[in-house]
Amino acid sequence: MSTALIGQSGGPTSVINSSLAGLIDGCEIFTDVDRVLGMRWGVEGLMAGNLVDLSAEPAENIAALRRTPSSALGSSRHKVTDADLPRILDRLREFDIGCLFMIGGNDTMDTIHRVTAYAAGQGYGLVGVGVPKTVDNDLYGTDHTPGYPSAARYTALSVQQSATLARDMQKVDQFVIYQSIGRDAGWLAAASVMGKLDEHDGPHLVYMPERVFDADRFLADVESARKAHGFVSIVCGEGLKYADGTPVSASRTTDKFANVEYGAMGGSSVAMQLHRMISERFGWRGEFQITESLPMCAIDRASRLDLQEAYDCGQAAARLAGEGRSGVMVTLQRKPGDAYESTTGTAELADVAVRAKPMPDAFINDAGNFPSRAFVEYLEPLIGPLADYARLTYAPAKK
Question: Among 56, 215, 225, 293, which residue's CB has the most CB atoms within a 10 Å radius?
């Protein structure tokens, strides 16, 4: 192989550039490529011939990637079609690409799988290796995904601090709702419990998309939590659904064609809907917080372990390519034992592309409104220690 090509795809993470640095460094160590190119704006950039020479970058720039958030090459959410494949192959031939790396999630792994299969069918030898990336932590075949521990840490710190504020403002606002990203997976919403050091600390209730949402049960949970703690801190995943499959973020009304109304047509975010339910039922005042993409790019809250493992995954991908391995994604495997230790492995791209990893049942309590102790033990070593804030004793003043 003479040239390697790297692309970043989908939403960023705080550590995706650390994987990029690992790949660039790894290609120099483990492969016989002459140079490393990067796609500017993902597959869209590749098809347009918009490639950059990463081998020409100063060494200090590559090193600095390990502490730089977002996607340095620029990203894309373009879903490759069959019609795109001939143009992609033309670009690979044009730049003499022998090895294709992409850093991303399920759709990205599907892209590498399809491109390498098409190239092989056209008689073009191409090694394709995927590097995992997603804050959702729902990629098949890996214990956890680079990017998730840092986003989990961001979520835990945000909820820990907002719940502390809610506790002290309970005479003004009786509840607070934090909405987490994560589509159909509750891994990030569940991470909010990591800053809970006392039973009265928030969050008190956590609702994950793996469980059907029941409005009446939710309101009963809220009422009980308020009685127990004086206020209630709630975390919800953005993908909550009712039993009939309707998203909680949608309005329960329909238009003249019997279609459920969304967004500006009558829908809103999950947090806004839950806020409305609570206010209408109890008449309480409260807040909601929606962070959207912030957990994807908060390098100041990145997990040190996550930064290192992301770099290691990049290096592992280069090593696999150097060995001629193709059609695989690098994975992280947790070694048995009390002390946390991981190693890299592989999963077939064809499997990763079509399978997802929801939270296991054992990670959610029986009531479906809080993560279990097993989940806490799973996540604890990945995010690092959090703050333990002062707790006044509130000793009564003597006259």
Answer: 225
Torsion, Cα of 79, 85, 87, 91 (10° steps): 90
Q: Which amino acid is at 391?
A: R
136 annotated active-site: yes
pLDDT, tens digit (0-9, with 9 covering 90-100), for 142-171: 999 999 999 999 999 999 999 999 999 999
The phi, psi pair for 363, rounded to 5°, reads -90, 0
Catalytically annotated residue among 25, 84, 110, 136? 136
Q: Which two tokens stand for residue 314?
A: 């990049």
Domains, the chain, ordered by start: 3-147+301-354 (3.40.50.450), 153-299+359-383 (3.40.50.460)
Using the structure block, give the residue that is written with the tokens 């290691």.
Answer: 312
> Greatest CA span in the chain, whole angstroms?
91
For residue 313 the two structure tokens come to 């995954």
| Residue reference for tokens 């008689």 | 123
Distance between CA atoms of 390 and 197, rounded to whole angstroms?
Answer: 12
Tell me, rounded to whole angstroms, the distance of Cα 170 from its chain centroid.
32
Q: Does residue 69 have a cis bond before it (omega within 30 degrees)? A: no
